[in-house]
Amino acid sequence: MAQPSSHVTAPLKDELDIVIPTIRNLDFLEQWRPFFQPYHLIIVQDGDPSKNILVPDGFDCELYNRNDVNRVLGPKSSCISFKDSACRCFGFLVSKKKYIFTIDDDCFVGKNPSGKEINALAQHIQNLLTPSTPFFFNTLYDPFREGVDFVRGYPFSLRGGVPTAISHGLWLNIPDYDAPTQLVKPLERNTRYVDAVLTIPKGTLFPMCGMNLAFDRELIGPAMYFGLMGDGQPIGRYDDMWAGWCAKNLTAISCANSHLIDKIEETETHDGIQWQGEQSIREFEEGIQGHILAGRHHPILPICCPSKRCTTLQQCYLELSKLVKEKLSPVDPYFNKLGDAMVTWIEAWDLLNSPAQEAAAPVDGVKKN
């Protein structure tokens, strides 16, 4: 069995799962071995379930494919996207840990300006365990960071902050552009290293990306549904942003944002498509459609306030699903399907996370270690 290349501490080792959607062998884990090996991995295989996905030796992980999704969820499997990285939501469902870190299979370890490798996961954990300040902006950014404090004029009554639900990471190299922007800037790369953590204010939306993301599953889990996209849908590549908009609207708990990893194009050793590089015509068309629809539905989301009769996040999310169908289906009939899928997602969440299910035998995939 392979061993970690260097010893690292593993905070929240028994409280955090790493969820990875993939269509290929997970060779990229070798770079992350020093940071990921202590943790349990949930791998959600997209595409052809008969394809054998290879995982490097020494990782504690379980793998689920589409057959497993259908087996576990039955008719409710319709809410899990196919041929889209939103399939990772299934990993959110079957995990029983308090925290989730999810990463794409073409993300590699970044380095700071001094050349030291960045432990992205450790920074996410630090974010999640540190309060956020969504109601009053601190002009020195993160007041909880070592060597920093609240500035003059910051209300003492707000300095305790609130629990952090989402830690959203950024990356180097390929920018996360929409399809039209990427088309006119195909060679642009991000080389600017940013070392900052700040809270996204309450009531402010942001374009969340799922490829380098951690969240508190107990606080925000039911709202982390990446939408119904990909195969059979007119829209793709907006699954993670949809989850971000919904989550940000349904809770006052804020997000921490830090620059963590290096996003690199796939090399010739992979048979897949370069990340946001050589997109297929289908991916490009879905991306443009998503960009158009996103621009038209933004006005509804910021004004969505759950009614006082909602006492759980699930109830709030179901109320949002009704608004999606009522207000957005005139924009495009796709939103009727999305609204229905949101309801099915909550049903699936409650099915796998009910007290009875917690007491029953766990849902298992193929063990790999």
From TrEMBL:
<dbReference type="GO" id="GO:0005794">
    <property type="term" value="C:Golgi apparatus"/>
</dbReference>
<dbReference type="GO" id="GO:0005829">
    <property type="term" value="C:cytosol"/>
</dbReference>
<dbReference type="InterPro" id="IPR029044">
    <property type="entry name" value="Nucleotide-diphossugar_trans"/>
</dbReference>
<dbReference type="GO" id="GO:0052691">
    <property type="term" value="F:UDP-arabinopyranose mutase activity"/>
</dbReference>
<dbReference type="GO" id="GO:0071669">
    <property type="term" value="P:plant-type cell wall organization or biogenesis"/>
</dbReference>
<keyword id="KW-0961">Cell wall biogenesis/degradation</keyword>
<dbReference type="GO" id="GO:0009505">
    <property type="term" value="C:plant-type cell wall"/>
</dbReference>
<dbReference type="InterPro" id="IPR037595">
    <property type="entry name" value="RGP_fam"/>
</dbReference>
<comment type="similarity">
    <text>Belongs to the RGP family.</text>
</comment>
<keyword id="KW-0333">Golgi apparatus</keyword>
<dbReference type="GO" id="GO:0071555">
    <property type="term" value="P:cell wall organization"/>
</dbReference>
<dbReference type="Pfam" id="PF03214">
    <property type="entry name" value="RGP"/>
</dbReference>
<dbReference type="GO" id="GO:0033356">
    <property type="term" value="P:UDP-L-arabinose metabolic process"/>
</dbReference>
<protein>
    <recommendedName>
        <fullName>UDP-arabinopyranose mutase</fullName>
    </recommendedName>
</protein>
